[in-house]
Structures are given as C-alpha cells and as structure tokens.
Design brief:
The complex is a heterodimer of chains A (776) and B (337).
Chain A lengths: L1 E3 H4 L9 H11 L2 E7 L6 E12 L2 E10 L6 E5 L9 E5 L14 E3 L2 E3 L2 E2 L36 E6 L10 H12 L22 E4 L7 E8 L8 H9 L7 H13 L3 E5 L7 E6 L5 E3 L5 E3 L5 E4 L4 E4 L3 E2 L12 E7 L2 H11 L4 H7 L7 H15 L3 E2 L4 E4 L8 E4 H8 L5 H10 L3 E3 L4 E5 L10 H12 L20 H15 L3 E2 L5 E2 L1 H6 L20 E2 L4 H11 L6 E11 L7 E11 L3 H16 L6 E8 L2 E8 L2 E9 L1 H6 L6 E7 L1 H6 L14 E10 L4 H8 L6 E12 L2 E10 L8 H19 L2 E2 L3
Parallel strand pairs in A: 11-14, 26-29
Antiparallel strand pairs in A: 1-10, 2-10, 3-4, 3-6, 4-5, 6-9, 7-8, 12-20, 12-21, 12-22, 13-20, 14-17, 15-16, 17-18, 18-19, 23-25, 24-25, 27-28, 29-30, 30-34, 31-32, 32-33, 33-34, 35-37, 35-38, 36-37
Helix pairs in contact in A: 2-3, 4-5, 5-8, 6-7, 10-11, 12-15, 18-19
Chain B lengths: L2 H18 L3 H12 L4 H7 L9 H26 L23 H15 L3 E2 L5 E3 H4 L26 E3 L4 H7 L7 E10 L11 E11 L4 H16 L5 E5 L5 E10 L16 E10 L1 H6 L8 E8 H9 L12 H4 L3
Parallel strand pairs in B: 1-4
Antiparallel strand pairs in B: 2-3, 4-5, 5-9, 6-7, 7-8, 8-9
The chains are: A alpha+beta (776), B alpha+beta (337).
C-alpha cells in the first residue's frame, strides 16, 4: 500500500516528521518499507503541445512542437504513444538533471533536432510508469516550473500491510492507525448521500442467487455522464498511490476504493439491456473476456455478476471488457458489495488473477463502508463527469453484523505484559483504536470498531493494548520454571560429532541445496523414479529432492578440483525417499569425496577412522564387494545390513563429471549408526614389551589384501597387530610390506619365540597366498 | 695514517672476513692472513718499535687487546663451524601448520545458537522436512484459502497426499507436543523452504531455528527478555533490541524483534535500509487455537514461540553479503572458516 501523506492529512493531523512517523508506525505493526519523496528540478517546466508530426526517419517517434510561453516554440522528439496536440506536459529543458540521474542535453535524434524532453512518471521519480508521458492539468500555467502541477514534494510511505490488517488498505484506515499510534484525533469525512430511497426496478433489478457468497449488494445508476480524463488533483492522487489514471469513471471508483477501502465497479448500462443484474455461480462452459484483455474459463466454483444473458464480471475481482466503461458510455451502473473473502481468494488463485479489488475482498472489507462508498462515488462521479445520480439505490441482502464484544480480564493483560495498568488506562488505550468498552474493575467488555475485523479474542486485545502502550516500553523479564536434563537427539549428536571428526581429519564441509536436477541424476545413472519430485520447481535444479548426497558433493568436488587437485570434501544432511506412508522416509546421510593420489584408500581410511571415533564397534562392521553407478569399491555392512559404501569413481563417471583427477566417493546412511554407538572401554595395558618386525613379500595381483589378512590372522596367537605400511605393483604382482607386532600378556617374548612365529607366518603366506618373501 | 687507525681498519676487515668464512679451512686462512706470523696485523704490531717510547705502552696495550679479541672471535667461529657444534636455531621460521579441515560457517552458527539456548534449558528437537499441509499450515491457524498463506510461498511435493516442503520449522512444535506435556522449552533448528526467486538475501532453501516455551505463567515480556538475552549472547552485550508489533497467524500477540544495526550503530546504512534497525526474528505468544491443537489448555498454560533465519544471523555475524555463497561449494569461501 502506497500512502501519500498529503492525502492522509485530510483525515488526521500529522505532526511528526515522515521518518519519525514511519518508525512509530513500524513499531506499532504497520511496517514502512520505504519513504518516497519526489523533488522535481526547476528545469522541468509546463509546456503546451502545439503540434505533433511523424518523425521522418522513425516510425515510433514523433516530432513535437511545444510552446513554453515566452520565445519561439521548441522542437522535441518524443516516443510516447499518448502525446497529442493541446496537452500540457512537463518539459525538461537541456541541462536539467532528472531524479532518475539522466541529464538532458540538446540532441539530434535520428537526424531531427530535439531540445529537451517530455517526461514520463518514472523519469521524474513519480512512479514506475513508463507507458506514456504525464499529461498535466489544463489549468497549469505554461512556462512555469512544473513541480506544482505535478504534485511534487509529495511524500509517500510504502507500507507493508500484514494480512490481518485489511483496515489499513485505505487512506482512511491508515489515518485511523496513525491517529491511534500518534495519539492524534481522527477526522472522519462526511460522505455525500444523494438520497436514501429505493431504486426503481425499472432502473435496475438485482437477482441474488447466492447469499452466502454475496451477503450484501447495492448499486446506483448515474445517467448522462461524459467520459473523459479526470481532473488533475484526482489523477495526481491516484498516481501518488500507484494507480494509473484511465478515465473519470474508473478513476472515481479507484479513488473511493483507495480512500475508504471498499472496491467498487462500474458497468456501462448498455451491457444490461433489460436492466437486470444476476449474482450467481458461473456455469460450466461460460467464459469471460476480462478488462485485462484475457479470457477466463468459468466454472460453478466462481461467483459472477451477470446480465440476464451472460457473465459481465468476476465478482469482486474484475469486470468484463464488454461491460466496461468506454468513451461512448453515457449511463453507468455503480456496484458496491460484500463478497465472501474465501470465495474471492479461491477464484483469484484458480484464475491466477489478483486485482486491487480481489486483494481487498479476500482480506475482507469494512461492511460499514459499503453504502457510504457507493454514495460518495456516485456523487463524485456525477460532479466530475457532468451526470446525474438517479434517485435511489438497490439493496440486496444484509450488511454483516458488527463484531461481538470480547471479554477482557485486566489481570491477564497486566500479567502477560508485566504492567500494572488501571482499568481506566486500558479503556483509554483501546479508545484510541476506536473500540468501545463497558464494565469496570478487572473485567471489561470490549467492542472492537467495525473496521477491525481482526480483533476477535482476548489475546487480540492484549496485543492492541501492548502495541499502543508501546512494545519497546514493556519491561524485559526472564523465564522461570522447572529445568530438567535435555539430552540431544542421538542422531543430532552423531551428525555433530561426525562433523567435527571429519573436519579434524582434514575435510572441508559443504552445504548443498537439498535438490538437484534430473539431468545430473541421469548422468550418474540414478533412476529419476526413485526420487521425490517437487511439483512446482522454480528451476530445473529444484526438480528432484535428493536421494543421496553424493551427486552434488561430486559435482562440487569436480568444480573445486580446478582450484586444488588434492581434495577432501564432505557433507552431512537430510535425504529423501518415498516410503509408501503419508510422509516420505527422511534420513541423515554423510557423503565424502576425495581426489588425488590414493583417493580411494584415503577416503576408506577416513571412514574407518570416523567409525572408530564414533564408537561403532569393529565387530559390527564388515565389508563386501560393491559395484554401483559411481564405480567399484566396497560396501559397508553393519551387522550384515548395508549402510553405505566407498567407491573409486569409474573412468566413465570421472569423464561425465569432468573430473581431472582420480576421485572416490563415500555415501553413508547415518541412521543405523546412532544405535550402534558404544562408549569406549579401557583395555588393560600389557606390562610386557611388544616386539616389532617388518615383513615384505610379493603376491600375485589376484590375491587381495583381505585374503592376506585372513591368512595371517589367527596364524599365531602372539601376533597382536598387523599394519600395512607400503604397497606397490609391478609386473602383475603386488608387493606388500607389513609392520607386525608380537606380544604376550604373560611374559616377555624371547627372540626365538618371535622368530618361530615369523617363520610360521612366512610359510602360511607362501602356502595360502602364493607369496614370495622379499629379503630385507 | 697513525697506528690506531690502521689497527682499527685491519681489525674491521678481519671481522668482516670472519663472518663470511663458512668452512673451517677458510676461517683458518683468514686467521693466518691477519694474525699469522706474517699476518697484516702481526706485521703492524711489529711496527710499534718505531713509535716514540712515551706512546708505546698505551698503543701496545691496545694492540694486544685487539689481537686477543680477534683471536677469541676466530675460535668462537671455528666452534660454530665444526660439524659437532650445535646448529644455529632460527626461531623465526614459520610454524608447520596442521592440516585440519573446515566446519561450514552455517554449521558453526547452528552450534552457536543451539549452545546458547541449551544453556538456558532448551531441548533440541528435529522433525521432517517434507510435511503434511495440515501440520505446516492448518494446525498452525493458517486455514486453506487464507491470505496468510501468501506470507509463505510453498513448494509442493509430488506423489499422493498434500505434502509440502515445510515453509518453517513450526510444524515440528506440533509434532513435538504430540508426546510432551508442559512445561516444555524447545528449539527446532532445521532446513526450511520457500517458493521464491533467489537473490542475495533470499533463497529457496535455508535454515531456521524456532523456539517454543509452554508453561504456566509464561509472559509476553519473558519472550522479549529471552530473545534479548539470546541476541546479546550471540552478537555481544552491546546489542540493543526492540519489539515491534507484527502478525503471524500462529501467535497472538505477535511481534518482530529488531536489533540496532551492527554496521552503522543505528545511524542508517544500506544493510538496515537506512532504518537503523535490523529485523531479526518473528515471535509471539502461542495462539490459543494452536495451543488447543497441541492439546494444551490455554486457560491453564501460556507459551511463546519465535523463529529466526540462521543464514541471516550467520551473514550478519560474519559479514557475508550473499546468502547463496554458503551453498556454492567455493573453497575460497569455505576455507575462511
């Protein structure tokens, strides 16, 4: 909502400077997002358009001759479609710096001399409109600075009106709010009321077919008007409020809507040949060509205003083009009604059509204004368009009843706000809002003003009392209460611990968006059907909810590897899969990606270290061969159930992701981990010294380390630790070098014992693995 | 040139030569060249015989002292250069850095926030990110076809049922209250989704931390005090907060907590859009309708709720200007934290 301060001052005296007013309004709940103030430079003067001729070298440009009073007329090249001889227009003279930053200079435009510029609203900082030049009031004095004629100096507050405060979608409503907040007095305007009688049904008959959807409908007929432009004061106000003036009829309906908040609509009476209006549900198959130039298919969920033949308006949203006011219109039917907010919203959503009218109706309008707005608009229209208001108005239905009184417990007010307000003080605060109160002492009955339909329960009133007292002036207090231990959810703790473990291991943590595009999934051979889809993605990257973290972690690794060739990245986050239940299955995953030498073994090492550090017992862990869409490696099993895998990226995937280095990836579902975590138990330190020996040998490359380890394990009871410290390949053979630790819990080992054990191991390796021992 | 000057010049020359000699043998050469039997200083001292007898003792003393000093320097240098001598230790060499990784600044911010609230007795709970519309909206007093739904543009999830990507972490409060009774103090950190075009300060997915307190006698001013305490703990004790009235369908009274702009100290700058204040979070007293949906009697209990954008807190605390940097995977960003 754009609120021109000069307009609101019609109804309330504003003493505060605009910035201060904006701050107070923001604190009280109507946020002021911006204060606009237009300053028109003196170099913009009123010109009178003498003639408009086509530009010899450009179809869209015109050569305009403008009189500035003194001196010869100026020649200006102008592209605006709406320029015409006889208009008074704002002319920026060469040398003038406009509010939009442009400095006007004498120029030659496509070979035609142009000395100055005729301005559109946006060029003067008066709005965003660039559809045509501003046409000034015919009364403007040619040659004078245009500032006055443009209504310059106008200060406009851009308000952020929350959905509950429909009352602030009008100037009068804002005036009430300003009065309440700044303790000023509101001057409610006296609305013209032509008469109170009933309109003859020969003039207009209204047939109401859906009371629930339209509880109240009223209309008047204005005859013999002349449709032309509105006077400049009216146009200036509309423009300041951000609405483009069109013609006097539409401008008047918009003006009254902005003024008091009641949307109105004007029909050309010719669209109602038998002067009959039907308020009904649309029939399937009907359609309406609306004023926005689009044709909308209708259905029975939609309420329409219809002639006896066809719909002429989407009730509360927009009129039809055929029944719209045109230059040739003489008689108009002016409508003011109350429509069901939910129905208006549903229709607006369904048709994707939001108008100033629907925006107000769906937030509900003040029913007390429905008649007043009609009368005011009819009177104003007759005055400005030279017509006559036909005596009487139609009335169908009842104005919805005003809000019910609300019980207010003073003790509760004071307790919740930590205040000690007297009942007198509370009554005074609520009075500023326009509420009436009855009762005394600790229990009051409060009747909210009819325009505050958001006030329905005691808590609403407590907010009013608080905000009018001033939220910033309330004391700050502290919670009191029972404190009990609140352990972290195990999965949260796990994720948090793992984050630290992986960072300590050198990983850089990533956060990715939780969705990716189908193309990436396809490139990684992940079936699109396995994913949860987003029904209304804003971009392709939001198409699928992630099933795994690996795709995006790999994608980011492929990008980052251009910066650093040896990488270790990780992410911990939520993944999604269809479950068959009402909600999908969500589980926290961890993905690791590494590039560079030994990427696979580095990642596997990190994973093993992380599992150790998390306290996942080694006895619960096992590995099996894994070959998946990423490449081949090993799958981690926890008590026999797959929990994830570590994979060296296949050449195909490496190429698809445009990796320059060899890469490996780990994906781990963390959910099964948190149940397996164990606190570490101290193992007694053996008091007898360990003996360390190294052993190096060749095995055929078909023999895996697992086979070697299995052969050694259990080969001798004195062997307590095996550590691989070197590995390389040559001629289809693999050289393995191990640190071996021998130790006995009972005694110090003799050299002979160790040598015997070592010999046994050598024999076992030769026999079981075809090893050939390397002499050291 | 007199004797003293000559001696000093030769001594200086020799000192310089000693410094540049890097092997024992070159050092020996220097020694011989100046102090040896035919060394230049030795020869100079021999010249003393030609000096008048009255000056001789004084000059002799000087000559001897110089000779001794230089000889001491030679042996000192020699010790240094011998292979068994302790190496010269340069303590100014840079330390060898440990290569540890980087925890994402968002994770660090989440930890900071949750640490503060846990220190105030809040329990951390989590919930699903794909939600039923009922939990995300209806039970939070946001009925279908209500304009309040416009406050949060929504992503819908395919498949059967009315499933949405949660627009806030508030539905978790409802889920948490399905198996809790007051008194409760909860915080819910987690990811939320908004169907909005992204720019430097808006993103389609970001993190939020929501809080819920329900107990007997919980006051609106307790809410203000709790948030003030939190923001002071997070940003420092110089923080000034201010409550502004606002509207969220699931609270009443509803408020927005603003904090005096950290960048301009309230004078007005581009970060606070010249207002001098930054809106930090929405909050309010839990709406009686929502309490009822939690099966909590609003006549007996009251409570408050608040919700803040974690990305925004991070951006303000760390001076990050674009919310999307967090999700870029750019190492030049990630390795700063």
């Amino acid at each position: 909502m754009r609120l021109p301060l000069s307009w609101v001052k019609d109804y309330v005296t504003v003493k505060l400077p605009p910035a201060k007013l904006a701050e107070q309004m923001t604190i009280a709940g109507i946020g002021v997002e911006r204060i606009r103030q237009s300053v028109i430079p003196d170099g913009v003067v009123v010109g009178s358009v003498l003639s408009v001729a086509p530009h010899p070298n450009a179809d869209r440009l015109k050569v305009v001759s403008v009189s500035l009073g003194k001196g010869d007329p100026r020649q200006i090249v102008c592209g605006a479609p709406n320029i015409a001889a006889g208009q008074k227009v704002p002319v920026a003279l060469p040398g003038t710096k406009l509010p939009n930053g442009v400095t006007i200079a004498e120029a030659s435009i496509r070979g035609v001399r142009s000395s100055g510029m005729i301005c559109a609203a946006d060029e003067l900082g008066l709005g965003d409109d660039h559809t045509g030049i501003i046409v000034l009031d015919t009364q403007a004095t040619v040659g004078q600075a245009a500032a006055r004629a443009l209504g310059a100096g106008e200060i406009i507050l851009e308000l952020e009106v929350t959905p509950n405060r429909a009352d602030c979608l009008s100037v009068l409503g804002c005036a009430r709010e300003i009065a309440a907040v700044t303790k000023a007095k509101i001057r409610v305007p006296k609305f013209d009321r032509p008469d109170r009688s009933k309109l003859s049904s020969r003039q207009l008959a209204v047939q109401m077919q859906d009371r629930a959807a339209c509880p109240f409908y009223t209309a008047r007929v204005i005859e013999r008007i002349q449709v032309g432009p509105s006077p400049s004061w009216l146009r200036a106000r509309l423009e300041a409020a951000g609405i483009r003036p069109i013609n006097v009829v539409i401008d008047v309906t918009n003006y009254v809507m902005l003024d008091v908040g009641q949307p109105l609509h004007a029909f050309d009476a010719r669209a109602l040949p038998d002067r009959k209006i039907v308020v009904r549900r649309a029939k399937s198959g009907e359609q309406l060509h609306a004023l926005d130039g689009k044709t909308y298919p209708l259905s029975p969920e939609i309420l329409v205003i219809a002639s006896s033949k066809a719909p002429i308006a989407l009730a509360g949203i927009m009129g039809g083009e055929a029944s719209g006011v045109q230059a040739s219109t003489r008689d108009v039917v002016l409508e003011s009604a109350v429509f069901d907010p939910l129905l208006v919203r549903k229709t607006s959503k369904k048709l994707g059509l939001i108008s100033e009218s629907s925006y107000r109706f769906e937030r509900s309008v003040n029913p007390a204004m429905t008649v007043a707005a009609l009368d005011a608009a009819a009177t104003l229209l007759a005055k400005l368009a030279g017509g006559k208001v036909v005596r009487g108005r139609t009335v169908t239905g009842k104005i919805p009843r005003p809000p019910k009184p609300i019980a207010l417990n003073l003790e509760r007010v004071n307790y919740l706000l930590s205040l000690s307000l007297s009942s007198r003080a509370v009554v005074d605060l609520l009075k500023r809002d326009g509420a009436r109160t009855s009762g005394t002492g600790k229990r009051l009955r409060v009747t909210p003003p009819v325009w505050r339909q958001d006030l329905a329960i005691e808590e609403d009133l407590i907010e009013e009392i608080g905000r009018l007292y001033g939220f910033p002036d309330l004391p700050l207090t502290h919670l009191m209460g029972t404190l009990r231990p609140a352990p972290l959810p195990p999965i949260w703790k796990l994720c948090d611990d793992l984050t630290s473990i992986l960072a300590a291991a050198g990983g850089v943590e990533l956060k990715n968006y939780p969705f990716y595009d189908g193309q990436l999934a396809a490139r990684l051979a992940l079936a699109k059907e396995q994913h949860l889809t987003v029904r209304n993605p804003l971009s392709r990257e939001q198409e699928l909810l992630r099933l795994e973290l690996a795709p995006l972690v790999l994608k980011k690794a492929a990008m980052a590897v251009r910066e650093e060739s040896v990488l270790f990245l990780y992410e911990i986050g939520r993944c999604f899969a269809e479950s068959g239940g009402p909600l999908p299955e969500e589980s926290d995953h961890c993905a690791l990606a590494a590039t560079g030498p030994d990427a696979y073994r580095r990642l596997k090492g990190v994973l093993e270290h992380a599992l150790d550090a998390l306290g996942i017992p080694r006895t619960a862990r096992s590995w099996e061969a894994l070959s998946n869409q990423y490449g081949s490696g090993q799958r981690l099993l926890l008590h026999g159930h797959p929990a994830g895998g570590c994979v060296a990226l296949s050449p195909a995937r490496t190429a698809e992701l445009k990796f320059r280095e060899n890469a490996a990836v780990v994906e781990l579902n963390l959910r099964p981990l948190s149940e397996l975590r164990q606190e570490r138990q101290y193992r007694h330190v053996i008091p007898f010294p360990p003996v360390r020996r190294d052993l190096a040998f060749w095995v055929p490359d078909s023999v895996t380390y697992d086979q070697v380890a299995a052969a050694i394990r259990g080969a001798d009871p004195l062997l307590t630790e095996v550590e691989l410290f070197d590995v390389f390949e040559k001629d289809r053979r693999r050289s393995l070098a191990l640190h071996l630790t021998f130790q006995s819990p009972q005694r110090t080992l003799t050299a002979h014992e160790v040598e015997t054990a070592l010999e046994r191991l050598r024999e076992k390796l030769v026999r079981a693995c075809g090893a050939s021992i390397r002499q050291s | 040139m007199n004797f003293t000057t000559q001696l000093e010049r030769l001594a200086a020359e020799m000192e310089k030569a000693l410094q540049t000699a890097t092997t024992p043998s070159s050092l020996d050469g220097v020694d011989k060249r100046y102090l040896g039997r035919k060394g230049s200083i030795t020869l100079l001292i021999k010249e003393l015989t030609k000096v008048p007898a009255a000056e001789r003792p004084k000059l002799g003393q000087l000559a001897n002292a110089t000779k001794q000093r230089l000889a001491a320097m030679v042996s000192e240098r020699l010790k240094r250069l011998s292979p068994s001598a302790p190496r010269q230790f340069d303590a100014t060499l840079p330390g060898i850095r440990v290569h540890i990784g980087h925890v994402h600044p968002l994770t660090q911010t989440i930890r900071k926030i949750t640490d503060i609230f846990r220190s105030m007795g809040f329990e951390l709970v989590e919930g699903p990110e794909v939600e039923l519309e009922r939990y995300n909206f209806d039970l939070l007093n946001i009925p279908p076809d209500h304009p309040a739904r416009d406050l949060q543009d929504t992503f819908y999830v395919g498949g059967s049922g009315h499933r949405v990507l949660r627009t806030h972490t508030s539905p978790v409060q409802l889920r948490a209250m399905e198996h809790r009774r007051p008194p409760v103090r909860l915080i819910v950190p987690g990811r939320v989704y908004r169907h909005e075009a992204t720019d430097a300060s808006h993103d389609a997915a970001f993190f939020q931390c929501e809080g819920l307190v329900i107990d007997k006698n919980v006051r609106f001013t307790d809410l203000l005090g709790t948030i003030d305490d939190f923001l002071k703990s997070f940003f420092g004790s110089a923080v000034v907060t201010r409550a502004q009235a606002s509207y969220f369908p699931f609270v009443e009274p509803g408020a927005e907590i603003a904090m005096r702009c950290l960048i301009c100290s309230g004078k007005g700058c581009s970060v606070c859009k010249q207002s001098g204040w930054l809106e930090m979070m929405g909050c309010g007293m839990v709406h009686p309708a929502v309490l009822k949906n939690m099966k909590v009697d609003p006549k007996v209990f009251s409570g408050f709720a608040f919700g803040m954008g974690i990305d925004r807190l991070m951006m303000l605390a760390l001076g990050i200007h674009d919310i999307r940097l967090s999700y870029s995977g750019d190492l030049r960003f990630l390795k700063q934290f």
